[in-house]
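4.2 Preliminary Data

To establish feasibility before requesting continued support, the project team ran the inverse folding procedure on a target of 417 residues. The structure was first converted into the token representation described in Section 3, and no sequence information of any kind was made available to the design step. The complete token record follows.
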């Protein structure tokens, strides 16, 4: 592409990249990765889940990975379940393996990750410095480090006021279950309601009565967890400050200051989340670009369409990202990019239609769909998935057909069949 001429004022009025170059630059770029650190109980996991949903990255946390293994009934999941049934803890070595394996998955290579709860306080398998070395030597190192800071006293007061519903596992803060605080909040609501119309006040009181009835049922079952006892909180915080705090401070100091966030742990999780998002948008950090499956609603009744033109017209308007925005065709039309990357020509099937960035791709099988959804980058980066060239060599016996075929295959990196 010929370079654009700059105006006399030295500023370019248009993007110097064309569409193909911009797409290639994105496919070759590193996905955004987050590391969230802080004292135990500061809300790292809550913030990490919110970021992973907003920024389309993979949530990586030990408890979540253990539950995933048990839920999917893998071999490791059965082993973990047997240990838990026996009242034993999951070995630290196995936990580290789950975290590392998750970070090495195709989905993380495409979307990035949000890692929290690591390094851990336990040094049963790896020392703190070894855990930090492991993070820094990952194929995808953290781009953003978020440190949630909270004074010891404030953290103790908040965690010691938590109670859990044993049936659902949901944790409630003191202001949600303490009857004194609930009564004070109710009085404030009533005082504010006096300024409103009588009808609105009556409806508000009815809603409050229903909410109070529900909360009473929950309050009867709430219990305090052992880890929320003040003495246990203090011991964990002390261990954190003695073993983890200093190495993490060194890690933070070595990191680029503009990608180092320090948050106030006394604020609510929603406030921290909004603060992080605003800073990410200001820095221009790109979110992940997931693959969207273009599957029409059942009532639309989109069956497998043989005609390529009709297929693209049908699925181009499914799940639009903006009004009047239609998906565009990729350069390979209906050919499956996964099959093309493997040197085969296979036409895609309607039910395996997806969109990535702004284009449509038609995959040929369930396996190809899973590979493309996990990480489409290898199938779209150079060498591009182009239809393979097939050469037929024929002639009389002993005319050198085999020798010629081998020479052609060696020259063009092909295979002789």
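Position-by-position output of the design step:
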């Amino acid at each position: 592409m010929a370079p654009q001429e700059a105006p006399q004022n030295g500023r370019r009025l248009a993007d110097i990249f064309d569409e193909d170059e911009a797409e290639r630059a994105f496919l070759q770029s590193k996905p955004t990765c987050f590391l969230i650190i802080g004292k135990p109980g500061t809300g790292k996991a809550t913030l990490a889940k919110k970021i992973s949903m907003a920024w389309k990255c993979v949530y990586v946390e030990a408890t979540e990975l253990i539950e995933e293994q048990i839920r999917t009934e893998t071999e490791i999941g059965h082993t973990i379940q047997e240990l838990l049934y026996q009242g034993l803890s999951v070995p630290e070595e196995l936990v580290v393996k789950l975290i590392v394996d998750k970070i090495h998955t195709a989905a993380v290579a495409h979307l990035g990750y949000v890692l929290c709860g690591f390094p851990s306080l336990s040094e049963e398998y790896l020392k703190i410095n070894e855990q930090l070395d492991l993070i820094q030597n990952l194929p995808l190192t953290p781009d953003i480090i978020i440190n949630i800071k909270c004074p010891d006293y404030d953290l103790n007061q908040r965690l010691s006021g938590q109670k859990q519903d044993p049936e659902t596992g949901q944790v409630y803060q003191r202001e949600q279950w303490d009857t004194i605080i609930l009564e004070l909040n109710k009085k404030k609501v009533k005082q504010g309601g006096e300024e409103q119309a009588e009808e609105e006040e009556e409806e508000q009181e009815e809603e409050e009565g229903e909410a109070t009835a529900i909360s009473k049922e929950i309050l009867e079952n709430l219990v305090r967890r052992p880890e929320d006892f003040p003495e246990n909180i203090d011991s964990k915080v002390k261990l954190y400050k003695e073993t983890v705090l200093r190495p993490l401070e060194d890690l933070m100091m070595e990191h680029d200051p503009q990608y180092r966030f320090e948050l106030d742990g006394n604020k609510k999780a929603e406030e921290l989340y909004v603060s992080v998002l605003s800073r990410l948008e200001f820095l221009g950090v790109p979110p992940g670009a997931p693959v969207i499956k273009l599957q029409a609603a059942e009532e639309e009744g989109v069956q497998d369409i043989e005609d390529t033109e009709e297929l693209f017209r049908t699925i181009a308007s499914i799940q639009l990202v903006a009004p009047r925005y239609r998906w565009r065709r990729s350069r390979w039309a209906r050919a499956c990019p996964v099959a093309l990357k493997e040197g085969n020509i296979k036409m895609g099937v309607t039910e395996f239609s997806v969109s990535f960035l702004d284009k449509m791709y038609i995959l040929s099988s369930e396996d190809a769909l899973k590979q493309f959804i996990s990480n489409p980058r290898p199938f779209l980066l150079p060498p591009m998935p182009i239809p393979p060239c097939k050469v037929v060599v024929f002639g009389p016996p002993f005319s050198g057909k085999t020798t010629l075929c081998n020479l052609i295959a060696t020259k063009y990196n092909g295979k002789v069949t």
